[in-house]
TrEMBL record:
It is an enzyme of class 2 (transferase). Keywords: ATP-binding, Cytoplasm, Kinase, Magnesium, Metal-binding, Nucleotide metabolism, Nucleotide-binding, Phosphoprotein, Transferase. The keyword Kinase applies. The gene is ndk. HAMAP family: NDP_kinase. SUPFAM superfamilies: Nucleoside diphosphate kinase, NDK (SSF54919). This is Nucleoside diphosphate kinase. Transmembrane segments: none annotated. It comes from Streptomyces ochraceiscleroticus. Homotetramer. It is found in: Cytoplasm. Residues 2-137 form the Nucleoside diphosphate kinase-like domain. Major role in the synthesis of nucleoside triphosphates other than ATP. The ATP gamma phosphate is transferred to the NDP beta phosphate via a ping-pong mechanism, using a phosphorylated active-site intermediate. It comes from the Bacteria.
Length: 137
């Protein structure tokens, strides 16, 4: 089942020079392709849309501050079961609980600064792709 998903390499990943490492892991999965890619610093309006479901949580404001603290790489990845697959590559939200071999498990320690975001469902993917790549059909 071919799908597409929205992936963000967060400011910690860009600042630490892990973009190539993370995108390399995605590129090495058979048949997955990158169909859009951009480096930019996100403004609050975009982040409020993207993280709308988290408004009011105690981690929301620090998350928005962190996510706007430096450039982010946003990309759309397409391919077989890519939604579940990228989340598997990423590992669980808390990097200390994430297994070795996953992106968060290998490189992260802090839940907020967990290197990568990946859409969690087809509905989320379509909503998020519209936010980050409004021109993409
Ligand atoms: P992400 O996949 O982008 O979705 C929501 C983000 O909020 C999550 O990754 C983390 O960066 C952050 N987050 C989620 N839970 C917590 C938490 N308990 N404390 C701090 N940050 C969190």
């Amino acid at each position: 089942m071919s799908q597409r998903t929205l992936v963000l390499l967060k400011p910690d990943a860009v600042q630490r020079g892990l973009v190539g490492e993370i995108i390399g892991r995605i590129e090495r999965k058979a048949g997955w392709t990158i169909s859009a890619l951009e480096l930019r610093t996100l403004d609050r309006a975009v982040l409020e849309q993207h993280y709308a479901e988290h408004v009011g949580r105690d981690f929301y404001e620090p998350l928005v501050t962190f996510m706007s603290s430096g450039p982010v790489v946003s990309l759309v990845v397409e391919g077989e079961r890519v939604i579940e697959g990228v989340r598997q590559l990423a590992g669980p939200t808390d990097p200390i609980k994430a297994p070795s071999g996953s992106i968060r498990g290998d490189f992260g320690t802090i839940t907020r600064e967990n290197l990568i975001h990946a859409s969690d469902s087809e509905e989320s993917a379509e909503r998020e792709i519209k936010i980050f790549f409004p021109g993409l059909s």
